[in-house]
């Protein structure tokens, strides 16, 4: 659906930092049908990806000076009414300011942050650009998910920073919590067990698709790899976790019709 504004705390923008900007543009264009609008950015190659002319997110080249320390990864932005106040709430709750705040031309203000376990996210205070113009439809972001080792600690942190509520999922097969803004579920949280090894806490982005199996196969044909094969979530849909050719991890999900 088309979006004209975001409530504070809602996911509002997705962004891929990659070491292969041209390759990433080609991969995601062929996979999702996203169009790429290249933009001039000092020190980096940068493109908006769009769906029927509506901005959805961005893909940018990791600057050479950071090539050894920044891996290819998807990032999520959450809407805020005051980026500086959000930074102070993050610090007070035990998180960390990684970068910013920065003014992005006439578009808005942003800052990159980390929660107490190190999971990174960003906040966006809009001026002329609200963020993604679509959500919750094929080709667009539809869900975000925090994987962490201390759900109770994370729940306290994000509730203080964004005012999110949290509820236990009805899924009996796996403990799961859902994040809520004004009673609307925006994402979820799961606990990382010993089987996750040393993988750090992180946010996972889910993009909606019509057929999970078709997209998983197509991603592999385009040079991506399968991390989690297409799997049913009872009462929800069918999802898969994928790596793009440069190692960027993301998920796709086909939502069951009500």
Which terms summarize this structure?
eight-stranded mixed sheet, alpha+beta, single chain, 258 residues
Task: Describe the protein's architecture and organization.
This protein is an alpha+beta fold and 258 residues long. 17% of the residues lie in helices and 45% in strands. It contains four helices and 16 strands. The protein has helices spanning 21-32, 83-92, 151-162, 212-221; strands at 11-18, 35-41, 44-51, 54-61, 73-79, 96-104, 108-114, 120-126, 141-148, 165-168, 177-181, 184-191, 202-208, 225-233, 237-243, 249-255. An eight-stranded mixed β-sheet has the order 2-3-4-1-5-8-7-6, with helices on one face. An eight-stranded mixed β-sheet has the order 10-11-12-9-13-16-15-14, covered by helices on one side. Strand 6 and strand 7 form a beta hairpin. The chain starts with 10 loop residues before the first strand and ends with a strand. The mean pLDDT is 94.
- List the helices and strands in order: EHEEEEHEEEEHEEEEHEEE
Mean of residue pLDDT values: 94
Question: In what order do the strands lie side by side in the largest sheet?
Answer: 2-3-4-1-5-8-7-6
Radius of gyration: 17 Å
C-alpha geometry? globular
What share of residues is helical?
10-25%
**Percent range for β-strand residues:** 35-45%
Contiguous low-pLDDT stretches (5 residues minimum) are: none
Distance between the termini: 17 Å
**Total number of β-strand segments?**
16
How would you sum up the major sheet?
8 strands, mixed
Structural class from helices and strands? alpha+beta
Q: Helical region count?
A: 4
């Amino acid at each position: 659906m088309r979006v004209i504004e975001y409530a504070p705390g809602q996911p509002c923008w997705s962004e891929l930092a990659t070491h292969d900007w041209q390759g990433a543009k080609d991969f995601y264009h062929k996979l999702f049908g996203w169009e790429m609008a290249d933009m001039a950015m000092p020190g980096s190659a940068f493109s908006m990806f769009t769906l029927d002319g509506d901005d959805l997110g961005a893909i940018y080249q990791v600057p050479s000076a950071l090539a050894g320390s920044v891996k290819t990864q998807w990032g999520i932005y959450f809407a805020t009414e005051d980026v500086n106040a959000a930074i102070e709430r993050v610090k007070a709750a035990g998180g960390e300011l990684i970068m910013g705040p920065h003014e992005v031309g006439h578009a808005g203000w942003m800052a990159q942050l980390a929660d107490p376990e190190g999971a990174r996210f960003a906040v966006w205070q809009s001026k002329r650009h609200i963020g993604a113009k679509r959500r919750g439809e094929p080709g667009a972001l539809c869900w975000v998910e925090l994987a962490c080792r201390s759900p109770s600690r994370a729940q306290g942190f994000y509730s203080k920073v964004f005012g999110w509520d949290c509820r236990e999922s009805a899924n009996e097969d796996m403990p799961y919590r859902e994040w809520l803004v004004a009673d609307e579920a925006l994402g979820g949280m799961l606990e990382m067990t010993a089987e996750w090894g040393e993988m750090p806490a992180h946010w996972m982005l889910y993009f909606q698709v019509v057929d999970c199996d078709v997209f998983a196969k197509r991603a592999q044909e385009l040079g991506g790899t399968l991390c989690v094969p297409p799997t049913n979530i009872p009462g929800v849909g069918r999802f898969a976790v994928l790596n793009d050719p440069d190692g960027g991890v993301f998920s796709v999900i086909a939502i069951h019709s009500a």
